[in-house]
C-alpha cells in the first residue's frame, strides 16, 4: 500500500489547494472536463492523499459530496483534482452537483500529512487533528478530522459513527478483525460568507 509522505502546507499552499478543488468542480460541472493542475506549487508534487468536501450554503448546509483517499501514489495536485471531481459526481452523495448550485457551495480540502498506526485509537486520537479510516474485509470508510468537532462528538462517538458509516456494527472498531488507522490532516475551507479561505 502506498505510504504518504510527511507533508505540511503553508497557508498559501492550502488556499491554492482549495482554489484548485473549486476549479475542478466547476470544470467538471460546467464542461464535463477534468481540470489540469497546471504549474503546481512544490508541495503539490508530494505523493499523499487528499479529500474534498462540498457543502451547500442553503438550508441546513447539507453535504453535497465528499470523496478522496488517505493513501495514493498520485501527486497531491492530481489527488485534489480527482477527489473534487468524484465529490461533485453522482457517485458521492447520490446526485451530481449542478450548475445552479455552484454559487451556493462551500468547498474544503483535507491534506493527509501523516499516517498514525495505533493499537489504542481512543487513547491516541486527537479530535480535530486526526482523521479516521476503518477497514474490515471489503468494508472501507473514512472521516474528516473536523467532523467530530463540527458535531460535538466525543472519541467513542467518532469511532462508532465511522463504523456505522462503513456498514459495520457500531462497536466494530474495537474488534481485532477491524483495522483502524488515524491520519493527521490539514483542512482548508472557503468561508461561507465568501471571504478569504481559512485553515481549520
Automatic annotation (TrEMBL):
InterPro entries: AMMECR1, AMMECR1_dom_sf, AMMECR1_domain, AMMECR1_N
Location of the AMMECR1 domain: 12-199
Lineage top rank: taxon: Archaea
A Pfam match: AMMECR1
PANTHER family: AMME SYNDROME CANDIDATE GENE 1 PROTEIN, AMMECR1 HOMOLOG
Designated name of the protein: AMMECR1 domain-containing protein
Organism the protein comes from: Haloquadratum walsbyi
